[in-house]
Design brief:
Blueprint lengths: L9 E7 L4 H16 L4 E8 L4 H12 L4 E11 L1 H6 L4 E4 L4 E4 L12 H25 L4 H9 L2 E4 H6 L5 E2 L10 E3 L1
Parallel strand pairs: 1-2, 1-8, 2-3, 3-4, 3-5, 4-7
Antiparallel strand pairs: 5-6
Helix pairs in contact: 1-2
InterPro entries: ClpP, ClpP/crotonase-like_dom_sf, ClpP/TepA
Organism: Telluria antibiotica
Protein name: Peptidase S14
Length: about 180
């Protein structure tokens, strides 16, 4: 009898909160655990209004190349940099009532900031936007009108809009079967 027979090959996970260094650490630990447990496919329900661009990009790159296949679900809201994290999934789904929101990067300068400090902030925002837009353009197909909204404001997509844009494969709920391996990340 193989020692792998008792280990699950498929697992269900929830991931919520701000995209930040804490989430990066939690995801690193969770994927290491999945690998140790022999999980080959991780179904991950994401609920996040976003956070830090660099942390989201790190999670995107890590999950897109993880030793487990990630299938992502949006059961409520995936917004801002969390959309990039979500796009790491090999397959992606959203509940009928889910929404997505994407926008350009933003920051607040300290009152009294000098022009050279403001320039550094602007250049950082432009670099972040170039990195995230590269992933968006290779993954989703927004209409020219949608790209226009994204250029200057918040673009909101419901599940049907997300499917039309290729952001999700289908409208489907995260529904772990009874008795399934289920963990919160």
């Amino acid at each position: 009898m193989s020692e792998d027979q008792g280990k699950p090959k498929e697992g269900y996970f929830t991931l919520s909160g701000d995209v930040n260094s804490d989430m990066v650490h939690r995801v690193f630990e969770a994927v290491a655990g999945m690998n140790d447990d022999g999980i080959e496919t991780a179904h991950i329900l994401v609920q996040s209004n976003g956070g830090y661009v660099s942390d989201g990009l790190c999670l995107y790159n890590f999950l897109a190349n993880a030793p487990v296949e990630c299938i992502m679900y949006n059961g409520g809201a995936v917004a801002s940099i969390a959309v990039i994290l979500f796009l790491a999934g090999k397959q992606r789904y959203a509940s009928e009532t889910a929404r997505f929101m994407i926008h350009k990067s933003h920051a607040t300068a300290s009152p009294g900031s000098r022009p050279d400090a403001l320039n550094i902030i602007v250049e950082g925002l432009r670099a972040d936007d170039a990195r995230t837009e590269s992933i968006l353009r290779k993954t989703v197909e927004l209409t020219p009108e949608q790209w226009g909204i994204h250029q200057y404001g918040d673009l909101h997509l419901n599940a049907r809009d997300a499917k039309a844009a290729g952001m999700i494969d289908d409208v489907r709920d995260f529904a772990p079967p009874k008795g399934a391996y289920l963990r919160n990340i």
